[in-house]
Design brief:
The chain is of the alpha+beta class. The structure holds calcium ion. The site of calcium ion has 8 residues, from β4. Calcium ion binds next to β4.
Length: about 90
């Protein structure tokens, strides 16, 4: 799944991919660490770039991460929202 390394990449995703959800939620390749409120990219890159929406992350039980028109949200992993693969 896509690793969002900087603002340009996030803006590209939001400009070019439309999930059909209210805030254009799209799963990205980050997830919450099991031991707390930190996150990691699935490819092992340091989680240095992130753009959390105001008030996010807000729920330790939300293990996945999405982009949105307002930035990153932690979110449950079970919604049928699109995800982006990066090759
Ligand atoms: Ca959340």
């Amino acid at each position: 799944m896509v690793v969002v390394s900087d603002q340009d990449e996030e803006e590209f995703i939001q400009a070019n991919f439309k999930s059909g959800t209210q805030y254009n939620f799209i799963y990205i390749g980050a997830e919450r660490d099991l031991n707390g409120n930190t996150f990691h990219w699935l490819n092992g890159e340091p989680f240095t770039y992130h753009n959390w929406d105001l008030g996010q992350p807000d729920n330790p039980e939300e293990m996945c991460v999405v982009t949105s028109t307002n930035g990153f949200h932690d979110a449950p992993c079970y919604f049928s929202w699109p995800l982006i693969c990066e090759i």
